[in-house]
Amino acid sequence: MEKFERLLVTAALPYANGYIHLGHIAGAYLPADIYVRFKRLCKEDVIFISGSDEHGTAIEISAMKEKVTPKEIIDKFHYANKEAFAGLGISFDIYSRTSNPIHHKTSQDFFLNLYDKDLLVQKSEKQLYSEKDKRFLADRFVEGTCPICGYEEARGDQCENCGSNLSPLELINPKSKISGDTPVVKESVNFFFPLEKFQPQLVEWIKTKKNWKSNVKNYCEGWFKTGLKDRAITRDLDWGVKIPVKGFEGKVIYVWFEAPIGYISATKELFIKKGTPEMWEKYWCDDKTKLVHFIGKDNIIFHAIVFPAMLMAHGGYILADNVPANEFLNLDGGKLSKSKGHGILVKDVVKEYNPDVIRYTIAANMPENKDSDFTWEDLQNKNNNELAAILGNFINRTVVFAKTKFDNKIPNSKVGAKPEVFDYIVNQKKVIEDCLDNYRFRDGLNEIMNIARAANKYFNDSEPWKVIKSDVDTCGEIIYNCLEICHTLAIAIFPVLPFTSERILRILNTDNSKIEWDNIGKYCLEQGKELGEDVILFPQIELQAAKEEEVKEEDNLITIDDFKKVQLRTAVVIQAEKVEKSKKLLKLRVKCGNKEKQIIAGIAEFYTPEEILNKNIVIVDNLKPAKLMGLESQGMLLAAKADGKLKIITADGEFSDGADVS
User: Is residue 86 located within the same domain as residue 124?
Assistant: First the structure.
């Protein structure tokens, strides 16, 4: 195996337009953190890099929707996600951001290197242009009808209804998402990276990666079989890294191109802060550095093909030793998705649960080779039946015995031959090393827990509660050995359960000076020293306390004063028509007493305009107006859904419209 002098670990830059969820953690951040913590225990020279990806159309669109600047969007999510990562114990050396000046400069220098080598190709392409907005419309700035399935709200890059990849020019009846303007087709010149040119070099490089995961190699081979194509690296946008070439004002470097350069700029930033700015090159330009990219499978193309090709084109950079991409973590059988709002946000869950229990549950179900599932029942089971019953039980029973039988001190013991359990532990150390070195974190965690299982067996087989009655010295030796195994466990679990490791050290009343991988299975504690305060490491989690994304009934109760704020009144539908380009919405005109209102209702799949006309319905009359499909809705009608069918709540009896409902 090639010997490296230093290790550079990156975790994918999360997009700063939403909060981090557990799917992200399982895909890239927890495996990276486990690996880095393990390597730090091994006293390797390692740095861990990540940061926010802060450019691109999605951020501009979010800013437009919220009527704020892109800077306000990225600040909000950068700091929130940075805090969430810290709450879960993800231990970056730096968590940077691509909006920083050093990143803009690094990306522009990288671009100019390729430009000066005449590697970049200029191509004229037809694009949609809004005369009203005075700008070309990048994919997500356009909405229209999907040519594949007919979905009327397809984006310019993808149809979320059928999943088809699209281009803006393929949309039927495209509209600008900025102004609603119907765009025209115009020519625009952009730069392209000649990815096709680097396919032979990439193929040969990946052939040398015998230890890469099969999912990554198969993915790459699929792209090679189809044939790589040149990719645009500039876009007609305002928000992003400006192109440093005259005549191309109003264009930016495509986010897919500049985002991975963020690993380099973040490394530069880290060493500037350390006061050794030139050191970044040791980690990016010295072949004695091992580079590992941790990502989810949706990022394989960029880290295993595109970014390596960019580095090859630039020259002078090392390439990744490994790209151990994970599959997806699902929730209730569905993919965790930030864009679809299906997920468990890290910022919320770390407030409710011990972060180590979350880390353990994800690590035990890590989607290393196939998609896996996260459930609250499993989190409860992992806490109660594994962490509490195995690890926590051994620590607690050992410490309580020492407190009650040895005056709350580590027993003074004549250390003779170590019991066989220590031979097992030393062997396990090698087994765990092999797992973690080869990115098999699920297996590694199981082998770590096997030490705790063996420790419980040693305690049970030694029967210290019996031995104390006839031989205090031998009992003291048993408990001393058990306390040393507690210390060993604090080392072994540190990569996965860092907070618990620290708590065990406090219980043992010792510091982290001997928390080194080589000390697993060794005697490290000071005999006769008083123990710290005993705590229950893993209190039982009750199933009803688990967050099933449901609100307890008693927590959802309101007062009569709350109810009085809602004004329910009867109304009659006097006009009804379909909302253009929507399958779900009807535009209603209702009469409520002496006034008329417009209500946009999502009932078109269940009622035709003719069926709802003249119906006496119940509406919320004091709801703040809201815009749906560009139309103002001035209230809400009441309806009930059962067995997939929607039924409007109607007024039964001789009511005039505008009557109060109470």
Answer: no
pLDDT band at 459; cut points 50, 70, 90? very high
Q: What is the CATH number of the domain that holds 162?
A: 2.170.220.10
Number of domains in the chain: 4
Q: Assign 532 to helix, strand or coil.
A: coil
Q: Which amino acid is at 573?
A: V
13: left (phi over 0), alpha (psi -120 to 50) or beta: beta
Closest CA to 64 of 147, 143, 9, 159: 143
Q: Which domain holds residue 237?
A: 118-252
> Which of 543, 566, 591 is a domain's end point?
543
Q: Are residues 243 and 262 in the same domain?
A: no
CB atoms within 10 A of CB 624: 7
The CA-atom distances, in angstroms, between 218 and each of 140, 159, 415, 554, 643 are: 30, 26, 54, 51, 43
| Amino acid present at 10 | T
Phi, psi dihedrals of residue 243, rounded to the nearest 5°: -75, 125
Name the domain boundary from 334, 356, 390: 334
Return d(Cα 284, Cα 294) in angstroms, integer: 16
Partner residues linked to 588 by β-bridges: 576, 599
Quickly tell me which residue has 């709002």 as its tokens: 341
- 662: CB partners within 8 A, 6+ apart: 568
In single-letter form, the type of residue at position 457 comes to: K
The tokens for 78 are: 């950068």
Question: Would 370 be classed as within a structural domain?
Answer: no
More confident residue, 586 or 275: 275
Considering the domain architecture, whether residues 243 and 315 belong to the same structural domain is answered as no
Q: Which residues pair with 46 in a beta bridge?
A: 7
For residues 59 and 47, membership in a common domain is answered with yes
Residues paired with 186 in a beta bridge: 127
What does each C-alpha distance from 280 to 98, 268, 435 come to in angstroms? 17, 5, 29
**AA letter at 262:** G
Q: What's the pLDDT at 551?
A: 39
Question: Would you say residue 529 has pLDDT above 70?
Answer: yes
In a domain, 364, yes or no: no
Give the residue carrying structure tokens 């990022």.
Answer: 299
- CATH number of the domain enclosing 389: 1.10.730.10
Q: What is the mean pLDDT of the chain?
A: 91
